[in-house]
Design brief:
Elements: H1 2-17, H2 21-33, H3 37-59, H4 67-90, H5 93-117, E1 142-143, E2 150-151, H6 154-174, H7 179-189, H8 194-218, H9 225-249, H10 252-273
Antiparallel strand pairs: 1-2
Helix pairs in contact: 1-2, 1-9, 2-3, 3-8, 3-9, 4-6, 4-8, 5-10, 6-7, 6-8, 7-8
């Protein structure tokens, strides 16, 4: 029951704020279940992958998921995820906790900045995506205006692959899905709309997270099904609830409040990592 409640909270947050589910899933499992970070990583990634698959399926009919970019990112991520998993086994636990806390800090500060500077983007959440064209910039990856697909060039492929490599390593090391990396990279490297970048990140997150879980299990990792299944089901239920209420609740105030909570969690993890 506790695992289902924690999963429900993760799904709601994922649906209403668009924030990376594993960014909050891992701390909830650590404090709610009394687990260490390595114990929480596979369960968190499994839930995030399931929620991202759900999100991808709901937006796929809109034609805003750039699946080639997502596949390229996830394929690159599979190359570096084993390196992250290996590093997680070598590095001391306090150092991993500090690393995760720094990720929380970066994500929360970005959310606060977006809520203040780009309030409209806070309503573009994973549970309620709707396509909206934007004025193109001058990125390395340009969209064909006739087809809506990316025009692939060598610089474009390198940019997308680089994002996938970084995401895979972080996924293996800290159990983060990587949406906070993927979306900014897609926005900087392409002229995709914010809606399309978030939708594409969902597919990349789903594939990278699922692959990392399988690799962790192949390396002897543990996935307690009695906790994992209720947690995943709760996350999916929360994602669905977020989809139904996103249009009314999502916005800069909610995002600011959640980012503030994440800052508190970040400070808590930093404090617990300091020897007393």
């Amino acid at each position: 029951m506790l695992a289902a409640i924690l999963g429900l909270a993760v799904g709601l947050i994922l649906g209403l704020t668009g924030a990376g589910g594993s960014v909050i899933a891992v701390p909830l499992l650590i404090w709610g279940m009394g687990w260490t970070l390595p114990q929480a990583v596979p369960v968190a990634l499994l839930a995030v992958s399931a929620a991202a698959i759900f999100g991808t399926a709901t937006v796929w009919p809109q034609g805003i998921v750039r699946y080639r970019a997502a596949l390229m990112m996830s394929a690159a991520g599979m190359l570096t995820a084993p390196l992250g998993l290996a590093a997680a086994q070598i590095l001391p636990l306090p150092l991993l906790n500090v690393g995760f806390a720094l990720i929380l800090l970066v994500v929360s500060l970005r959310m606060l900045y977006a809520a203040r500077k780009s309030p409209d983007e806070t309503r573009v959440v994973r549970a309620g995506l709707r396509d909206q064209r934007e004025a193109p910039g001058e990125p390395v990856c340009k969209v064909n205006p006739d087809t809506g697909r990316l025009l692939w060039t060598r610089p474009c492929a390198l940019a997308i692959t680089g994002g996938g490599l970084a995401t895979g390593f972080l996924s293996g090391l800290l159990g983060v899905g990587g949406g906070f990396v993927i979306v900014p990279i897609l926005r900087a490297a392409t002229d995709l709309s914010f809606h399309s970048a978030v939708a594409t990140s969902l597919m990349a997150i789903a594939l990278t997270s699922a692959g990392t879980v399988l690799m962790a299990l192949a390396q002897g990792g543990n996935l307690p099904l009695l906790v994992a299944l209720p947690f995943v089901l709760g996350a999916l239920a929360g994602m669905l609830a977020g989809r139904l209420t996103a249009n009314r609740l999502a916005g800069p105030r909610l995002q600011t409040g959640f980012a503030s909570v994440m800052l508190v969690v970040c400070l808590g993890m930093l404090w617990s990592a300091i020897p007393h």
